[in-house]
Amino acid sequence: MNSKLIKTVIEDTLTRHKSTGEPVNNIVKEFTAKFRLGSRDRNLVNETIFNIFREKPWPNWFLELMKSQYNSEFHDLELSFRKRARPVLAVDLRFSSLMSTIEELKHQEIECAFSKFSKNALILSNHKVDLSKLEHCWWMNDGSQYVALQIKSDATQFVLDLCAGKGGKTRIIMETGAKITAIDINKNRLTLSKGVKCINADGRFFKSKQLFDWILVDAPCSGTGTIRHAPDLFGRLKLADIQKFAKLQTDLILNAAKLLKPSGILVYATCSVLKQENHEYIEGLKLISNKQLLPNRDDTDGFYIANFCKETN
Ligand SMILES: C[S@@+](CC[C@H](N)C(=O)[O-])C[C@H]1O[C@@H](n2cnc3c(N)ncnc32)[C@H](O)[C@@H]1O
After folding, report:
1. pLDDT of residue 133
2. Whose CA is nearest to atom 12 of ligand 1?
3. With 70 as the cut, is the pLDDT of residue 209 above it?
4. 160 touches ligand 1 (CB under 6 Å)
5. Catalytic residue among 112, 221, 271, 309
6. Active site includes 309?
7. pLDDT tens track for 43-76
8. Which of 288, 264, 265, 290 has the alpha carbon at shortest distance from 277?
9. Do residues 262 and 153 both lie within one domain?
10. Average model confidence (pLDDT) for the chain?
11. CA dist., res. 143 & res. 163, Å (int)
């Protein structure tokens, strides 16, 4: 470990983040590559900087929104957001099992616990895992896995994943054997495996003759539910963004509703804790159920999940 180099990377990252607001992870990746530092040093730099951000006060606009929404729970919620999230793996149960993964993790002296939110999840006793030695696993918060598990499709059904991104949730939905179409506006993020029809498109305008039994709208959002993983969030997130997200989310849901079979279910989700983004009322849709996961209550990231069906009259 070269402590002088590490100090330089930390200082340079903080300076650049202050002027650009770029995610710390990205800057650290670039600088550690430039100075040829390994992954262990990169993690050390990241965590050192994140610990600095975990101490920083939140912007006033966010404090006001949170206090007015969470009232007496606000204090506990803030404390939990200032801690490091526990490490959670998702296991692809088509190719592996929780028990075999637990056995593999034992060799790395890591203990595991189950999650009440996901049958695919293992909560690890520490972050120092060599993922390359584990097959069919990836990092994914159990709150995020819970979202994917709301799609209770079967092999005869059609599923649309309207904001599929890199496909963490799609991968879990694939376990149901359903016929999946995955859309994302960002071509580079659509890196899904075979068996899924991938389309690079804007979900607000996507049209299809095929209607869907299940639609997941895992919407772009403020990410305020994931502050534990991204305590540098407020370098780039501003109050005006919340309204922009709310509009984009509504447009995505309204288009999804047009693609839903009359008997279909639309699952809307965000990793936001703000009610401005966590919609309950959408024209033409009826709310069946909704839930807000929170780190202080559930020890997951902050996720909002709402199940809608078409309004019948
Ligand atoms: C919360 S992320 C999705 C994460 C993904 N479902 C997963 O589990 O890995 C939101 C995604 O929405 C995509 N997105 C943003 N605007 C969009 C639009 N208008 N149409 C479709 N996708 C969009 C982003 O590129 C991003 O990948």
Report:
1. 84
2. 163
3. yes
4. no
5. 271
6. no
7. 899 999 999 999 999 999 999 999 999 999 999 9
8. 290
9. yes
10. 95
11. 17
Amino acid at 309: C
What is residue 273's predicted lDDT score, i.e. its pLDDT?
98
> What CATH number does the domain containing 111 carry?
3.30.70
The tokens of 35 are what? 């100075």
* 92 and 196, same domain (yes or no): no
Do 183 and 160 fall within a single domain?
Answer: yes
Residue 62 domain flag: no
Name residue, tokens 């309004």. Answer: 311
Boundary-marking domain end, from 99, 118, 139: 139
Tell me, yes or no, whether 68 lies in a domain: no
In sequence order, what are the residues at sequence separation of 6 or more whose Cβ sits closer than 8 angstroms to the Cβ of residue 304? 225, 268, 269, 270, 271, 272, 273, 277, 278, 290, 291, 292, 293
Instruction: Name the amino acid, one letter, at 212.
Output: F
Whether 173 and 264 share a structural domain: yes
Q: Is 164 in the pocket of ligand 1 (CB under 6 A)?
A: yes
